[in-house]
Design goal:
Strand order of the largest sheet: 3-2-1-4-5-6-7
Distance between the termini: 32 Å
Largest sheet: 7 strands, parallel
CATH class: Alpha Beta
Bound molecules: nicotinamide-adenine-dinucleotide
Number of strands: 7
Radius of gyration: 18 Å
Number of helices: 8
CATH superfamily: NAD(P)-binding Rossmann-like Domain
Oligomer: single chain
Strand content: 15-25%
CATH topology: Rossmann fold
Number of domains: 1
């Protein structure tokens, strides 16, 4: 039980990568708040954990909404006493050539990925400092935190920005035992990616199989997708690492797509 007595608040945990992290954390003994825009799916994921003998709550939150982030972190503290681990994971993807992006879509992307990371960090760091027990802050970056791809200007911009945020929070949190790190996955077959395959095929004028083989997995060492289990294993390591030796880092889990 690597997370016994720990409380984790995980955003976007009703689906995909976030859900797998919530399940793994619960299996390792954590009490988990599943915070997601999709309230029904968040409650269903929490019920899955409770039915398996774990502890979890499902909470509705839009991570771009200051009041909702504050109240959902407060609800987590009410339910479980504190917050030891934040996984800022909620995210979406919108693909267009840069000149076709509307300002509204650009702002929406930066709001979900960056405002969401800031607001959840602020709420959780305040609690970690007040409770004086340190903590682990984990941002769901991407290989796109370090590399660029066509059609993804706001996503690449936001994911690069998370590395700057993590490094700053790591410096500010050091003397309080608060660590901050970024996970940088390659492509993982989740609803977020399944939606992009036909969109990219259309935008690039190629087949869906070509999008998978020649765009998404082209630079991996073995042509394989990363899995939610791969990412959750790294999230477990960052959450359970015992010292400040591992902070301010960004770790690729991408079948070698990025080695930087
Ligand atoms: P997903 O679509 O399966 O899950 C995303 C979840 O976020 C959904 O449950 C959705 O309801 C929630 N969400 C969306 N907007 C929200 C908001 N404003 N407030 C709260 N919740 C919101 O996607 P996923 O693939 O599991 O992606 C999770 C994270 O991993 C994202 O940050 C994504 O950028 C990142 N990522 C994904 C991949 C991949 O290939 N799937 C690769 C690298 C990084």
């Amino acid at each position: 039980m690597r997370l016994a007595h720990k409380v984790a608040y995980v955003t976007g945990a009703a689906s995909g990568i976030g859900k797998e992290i919530a399940l793994v954390y619960a299996r390792e003994g954590a009490k988990v708040a599943i915070a997601d825009l999709n309230e029904d799916a968040a409650k269903a994921a929490a019920a899955e954990i409770v039915n398996a003998g774990g502890q979890a709550i499902g909470i509705a939150v839009d991570v771009t909404n200051e009041d909702q982030v504050e109240s959902s972190v407060a609800a987590t503290i009410d339910a479980f006493g504190t917050v030891d681990v934040l996984v800022s994971n909620a995210g979406i993807q919108i693909v267009h050539p840069v000149e076709e992006f509307t300002l509204a879509d650009w702002r929406r992307m930066l709001a979900i990925h960056l405002d969401g990371a800031f607001l959840t960090t602020r709420a959780c760091v305040r609690q970690m400092k007040a409770a004086d027990h340190g903590g682990s802050i984990i941002y769901m970056g991407s290989v796109h935190s370090k590399e660029a791809s066509k059609l993804k200007a706001p996503y690449v911009t936001a994911k690069h920005g998370l590395i700057g945020l993590a490094r700053t929070v790591a410096k500010e949190g050091g003397s309080f035992g608060i660590r901050a790190n970024v996970i940088c996955p390659g492509f993982v077959r989740t609803p977020l990616v399944d939606k992009q395959i036909p969109e990219q095929a259309k935008a690039l004028g190629i087949s869906e199989m070509d999008v998978i083989r020649n765009v998404m997995l082209k630079d991996t060492v073995d042509g394989e997708f990363t899995t939610t289990a791969d990412v959750a294993e790294i999230a477990l390591m960052f959450a359970s690492f015992p010292t400040n030796a591992l902070t301010g880092q960004s770790l690729n889990v991408s079948h070698g797509w990025s080695m930087g």
